[in-house]
Amino acid sequence: MAEVHAVKDPDTIRLISHLLSRNHSQQMADVWNIGLNLALRISDLLAIKFSDIQDGRLQLKEQKTGKLASIPLNPKALQIIERIRKEHPEHIYLFQSYRNRQSHKRAPHPLSRRAVGQAFELVSEEVKLPLGTHSMRKTRGYHLYQSTKDIARVMKMLRHSSEGVTLRYIGITQDEVDQDFKELEL
């Protein structure tokens, strides 16, 4: 599996959303946009049920760590969630699979990680960036770090236990850290 990166340019973030909507589906663009705003692992993102969302918060147990996460939803995430709920009031999952011809005979299930990964991979060719299902989480972490320079805050958001892991994860290199020391004079 190729390593994927954070998307550092805001215009590229918007372009990816547009390309996912145009070339795949609005649902794939919604996965991208909600994923950017929640910074969840893809397994947790796709497993979100509407019942997990109450009073403007998402409550879930992370599959990888078993930790409970209580995430306040920002206005953009809430707007997308409400639109999806309105368009598909019978859905159980936020990103419920409904394209399969046999889906009416099976119990409801979310989109697959594979389907999302394939859509992102095709868009990555167009934008010439290595994208994958972790790109949303990495992008959120990168932009939070750039706006705050507070690695502890990014670690907490991503629920990491090590600064080094977090810095590598969001693509911050030692050269960038060194540059911050040079540029910030007090």
Structure summary:
Helix content is 54%, strand content 6%.
Strand content bin: 5-15%
Biggest beta sheet attributes: 3 strands, antiparallel
Q: Under the CATH scheme, which architecture would be assigned?
A: Orthogonal Bundle
In percent, how helical is the residue content? 40-55%
Structural class: mainly alpha
Strand arrangement in the largest pleated sheet: 1-2-3
Number of domains: 1
Description:
Keywords: DNA integration, DNA recombination. Pfam families: Phage_integrase (PF00589). This is Site-specific integrase. GO terms for molecular function: DNA binding. It comes from Ferrimonas aestuarii. The structure is a single chain. This protein is mainly alpha-helical. The protein has a three-stranded antiparallel β-sheet, with no helix packed on it. Helices cover about 55% and strands about 5% of the residues. α6 runs antiparallel to α7. The protein has a single domain, classed as Orthogonal Bundle (hpI Integrase, Chain A), CATH 1.10.443. The radius of gyration is 17 Å and the shape is globular. β2 (about 55-60) and β3 form a beta hairpin. It is built from nine helices and three strands. The model has no long low-confidence stretch (mean pLDDT about 90).
Key words describing this protein structure:
single chain, 186 residues, mainly alpha, hpI Integrase, Chain A, three-stranded antiparallel sheet, 9 helices, 54% helix, Integrase_catalytic, DNA integration
